[in-house]
Design brief:
- By secondary structure, the protein is α/β, with parallel strands linked by helices.
- The protein folds into two domains: 2-158, Leucine Aminopeptidase, subunit E, domain 1, CATH 3.40.220; 178-493, Zn peptidases (Aminopeptidase).
- The protein is built from 13 helices and 18 strands.
- It has helices spanning 35-46, 84-100, 119-134, 164-189, 197-211, 220-226, 229-234, 288-303, 348-358, 375-381, 393-406, 439-448, 485-493, and strands at residues 2-6, 17-22, 57-61, 70-75, 105-109, 153-157, 214-218, 243-250, 258-262, 264-268, 308-318, 330-332, 338-340, 366-371, 386-390, 410-412, 430-431, 455-459.
- Strands 7, 8, 9, 10, 11, 14, 15, 16 and 18 form a nine-stranded mixed β-sheet that branches. It has a six-stranded mixed β-sheet with strand order 1-6-5-2-4-3, with helices on one face.
- Helix 3 (119-134) packs parallel to helix 4 (164-189).
- The longest helix has 26 residues, at 164-189.
- The mean pLDDT is 94.
Length: 499
């Protein structure tokens, strides 16, 4: 989608339709708009047809000559309650409504109160709401793509020419971020038949090559040398060989890197501990963590963030077969610890354990892993928030703040030593599951055995794709959410800011 900027008034007849945000209870456009139109809006407010409430929309057909033909009124809610998330939702609702009318372009005022929120942040949120709402995964549709309803151009209307540089810069930044989110969505939405570990590794190489990143792909022989018993054993049931991707962005001088680890189960049947068939098709999204890390690495490269950032993604299928690993097996992990397998459907933590051990070699400032790890997290938090656990208070605080700003909210669960008792094994150092109680926490407790650095774990089982309980947001179309990319970019852009 293309964005342009213009100083034209909202009434200019260059536009077929213009969207304008209106705060609840404030029945006027502003002094720059002619009295007749302000009177029109005042009458609508008086009749209660439109009150400016959040998500409320009303289309005005303008009869005056020499003016825009239509104005879409977009409710912003109470001025004092307005947030960047409200801006993203409002801009997404506007685009959705206009697209459904069949238009391919429109103009929009910048939504929000500039006395409270900076112009750059308001523009970024507007563009994010538009770009993420306009996303469609149509790779496998055989219908004429030209007939699909889609917005191609949005013109942002300025209040003065002095705003041009800030607005254009903010548009560019937001589009880079959205491209990263939509890349993650594409990888997650792609069926496992076309997103094998090898195919995703090739995509990571391409992205790295095009963006000046260093990409290393480990194969089976490399994993064997490193003793990656988790990744190698989980992959045994599949005919597709596993891959281990490392993507490096080095613009931070001699600083220690910040590392992101994404779970990449390209399809999860549960293995020998096979899942129920209902909704198993959604298990193509078990690679969402890896998808988000790859999308993030493209984004940080294009933004040229002055940091050292590393993205790591272990990739494999988890399938049952005559060669698959089994309940009761004991695995030796790359850090030498042994794990008794209770369930082969708790495979994500096994491949993450090897990845978390591997990244210790970088002596990182911080490590964040992101994974569709436990159904227990969906039970605990639904599909509204991502589960957060970790061993570093500053890192967790930074993630919470970034989540509040981006709308990709996280909620902390405890990681107390008592939970480790549930994963004690009679025959090995630990078990890979600790029973139903506190399942999200015991999974993180398992991972904590493989970290020796500041670390946070994000469980996105409920937020990685739209499912029952997912909040209705226009910028979350059906399928993969691409969660994590915007959260991490916000974290990194403010990395040197003291909390």
């Amino acid at each position: 989608m293309d964005f342009s900027v213009s100083k034209l008034d909202i009434l200019d007849n260059s536009f077929e339709i213009t969207s304008v945000g209106v705060f609840e209870g404030e029945g006027y456009f502003g002094i720059s708009t002619d009295n007749a139109l302000n009177q029109h809006l005042s009458n609508i407010f008086s009749s209660k047809e439109f009150e400016g409430k959040t998500k409320q929309l009303t289309l005005l057909h303008i009869d005056q000559k020499q003016t825009v033909k239509r104005i879409l009124l977009v409710g912003l809610g109470k001025r004092e309650a307005f947030t960047l998330e409200a801006s993203r939702i409002a801009s997404g609702k506007a685009l959705q409504f206009i697209r459904n009318l069949g238009f391919q372009s429109y103009a929009s005022k910048i939504f929000g109160d500039r006395r409270k929120i900076s112009l750059s942040n308001l523009v970024e949120s507007l563009v994010v709401g538009c770009e993420l709402t306009n996303y469609q995964f149509s790779k496998y549709k055989t219908i004429d793509l030209e007939s699909q309803k889609k917005i191609n151009i949005v013109t942002i209307l300025l209040e003065s020419d002095d705003e041009t540089d800030v607005v254009r810069s903010s548009i560019s930044t937001a589009q880079i971020i959205c491209n990263g989110v939509n890349l993650a969505r594409d990888i997650s939405n792609t069926p496992s038949s076309d997103a094998t570990p090898s195919q995703i590794a090739e995509e990571a190489k391409r992205i790295s090559r095009e963006n000046g990143l260093n990409c290393i792909v480990l194969e089976v022989k490399d994993m064997e040398k490193l003793g990656m018993g988790g990744l190698l054993n989980v992959s045994r049931g599949s005919q597709q060989p596993p891959r281990f991707i490392i993507i490096e962005h080095k613009l931070g001088d001699d600083e220690k890197p910040i590392v992101f680890v994404g779970k990449g189960i390209t399809f999860d049947s549960g293995g020998i501990s096979i899942k129920p068939s209902e909704k198993m098709e959604d298990m193509k999204h078990d690679k969402s963590g890896a998808a988000s890390v790859i999308g993030l690495m493209q984004t940080v490269a294009k933004l040229k963030l002055r940091l050292n950032i590393i993205g790591v993604t272990p990739l494999t299928e988890n399938l049952p077969s005559g060669t698959a690993y089994k309940p009761g097996d004991v695995l030796k992990m790359s850090n030498g610890k042994t794990v008794e397998v209770i369930s082969t459907d708790a495979e994500g933590r096994l491949i993450l354990a090897d990845a978390l051990t591997y990244v210790s070699k970088y002596t990182p400032q911080a490590v964040i892993d992101i994974a569709t790890l436990t159904g227990a997290c969906v039970i605990a938090l639904g599909s509204v928030a991502t589960g957060l656990l970790g061993n570093d208070e500053d890192l967790k605080s930074r993630l919470k703040l970034a989540g509040d700003i981006t709308g990709e909210r996280v909620w902390e669960l405890p990681l107390w030593d008592e939970y480790k008792d549930q994963i004690k094994s009679e025959i090995a150092d630990m078990k890979n599951v600790g029973g139903r109680p506190g399942g999200t926490i015991t999974a993180a407790s398992f991972l904590s055995n493989f970290v020796d650095y500041p670390w946070a774990h994000l469980d996105i089982a409920g937020t990685a794709w739209t499912q029952e309980g997912t909040p209705e947001r226009p910028y979350l179309p059906k399928g993969a959410s691409g969660i994590g990319v915007r959260l991490f970019v916000e974290l990194l852009r403010n990395w040197r800011t003291k909390q």
